[in-house]
Specification:
This is DDE Tnp4 domain-containing protein. The protein has 252 residues and is α+β, with helices and mostly antiparallel strands. Helices cover 45% and strands 16% of the residues. The protein has eleven helices and seven strands. It has helices spanning 2-10, 13-22, 40-47, 51-60, 77-89, 94-101, 105-123, 137-149, 213-220, 222-229, 244-251, and strands at 66-68, 74-76, 157-167, 179-180, 185-194, 200-208, 239-241. The strands form two sheets. Strands 3, 4, 5, 6 and 7 form a five-stranded mixed β-sheet that branches. α1 (2-10) packs across α3 (40-47) and α6 packs across α7 (105-123). The radius of gyration is 22 Å and the shape is globular. The N and C termini lie far apart (60 Å).
């Protein structure tokens, strides 16, 4: 088991899928990983987090020690979090995760969805409200300084805003509402603000795919929130940077 993990951690992402496919006929010989027995390098390869940080993340997200699904399938909280991290860290099928975690596709789906629902229900407000403890003036100063140090034209720009189109299947009813003419596909749209450390600090959506990004900006009420929370007592105003239509809207 330890040798299998060493090989997986050493391989490139493309080679890892090949190795997992070869393990499909030997499911009994690949019982699943134990997080406590993984090295720090293996945790980075599998989950993109250091080994010690995974437990810190579990406590920060307040994921319980034991996760219980609707059909009474259970898993340790740390294992459920690792399943979610692996699912999000690399585009893989549930079938591929069977040979990593030693669980069936059904169990993996239930546990992953249970943990994701828990995280969303308890922390989704952090993506929609600027009045957050972590987004303090000190954080804004640090983010703005990082942007300016990389030859940014402004010393007060702390994030980057843009809209994204996520394709969906053609609905049977009201398909015109979600048809995006630019991408020529049915879709839902989201608007996000990303800080220089790569974290999405604000997320709005979904809305109909036919809507323009400028309309999504107005509907999200980001401008009003920024006027309240992005002005310091000294009168300094922090801003965000985006595409030309976003920039024009933010200047108005």
């Amino acid at each position: 088991m330890a040798e299998n993990l060493k090989v997986l951690a050493a391989l490139e992402d493309s080679d890892e899928l090949l190795l997992l496919s070869l393990c499909k006929e030997e499911k009994g010989n690949f019982p699943g990983i134990e997080v406590e027995k993984l090295t720090n390098e293996q945790c980075r390869s599998f989950f993109r987090f250091d080994k010690d940080d995974i437990e810190i993340l579990r406590r920060a997200l307040r994921i319980p020690e034991k996760v219980v699904c609707s059909n009474r399938t259970t898993a340790r909280g740390i294992d459920g979090l690792c399943m979610v991290l692996r699912r999000l860290a690399y585009p893989c099928r549930l079938e591929d995760l069977e040979y990593i975690f030693g669980r069936s596709k059904t169990e993996l789906s239930l546990i992953i969805n249970e943990v994701l629902d828990y995280i969303h229900d308890n922390h989704c407000h952090l993506l929609s409200d600027f009045n957050m403890s972590w987004l303090s003036q000190e954080c804004l100063e640090r983010f703005a300084g990082a942007v300016f140090d990389r030859d940014g034209p402004l010393d007060s720009c702390w994030g980057f805003i843009d809209g994204t189109v996520r394709p969906i299947c053609r609905p049977q009813e009201n398909q015109r509402l979600v048809f995006n003419g630019h991408k020529r596909s049915h879709a839902l749209k989201f608007q996000s603000i990303v800080t220089p450390n790569g974290i999405i600090s604000n997320l709005f959506g979904p809305i109909e795919g036919r809507r323009h990004d400028a309309g999504m900006l107005r509907e999200s009420d980001i401008l009003a929130q920024m006027r309240v929370h992005m002005t310091t007592p000294q009168g300094r105003i922090f801003c965000i940077y985006g595409a030309i239509f976003y920039f024009l809207c933010l200047m108005i």
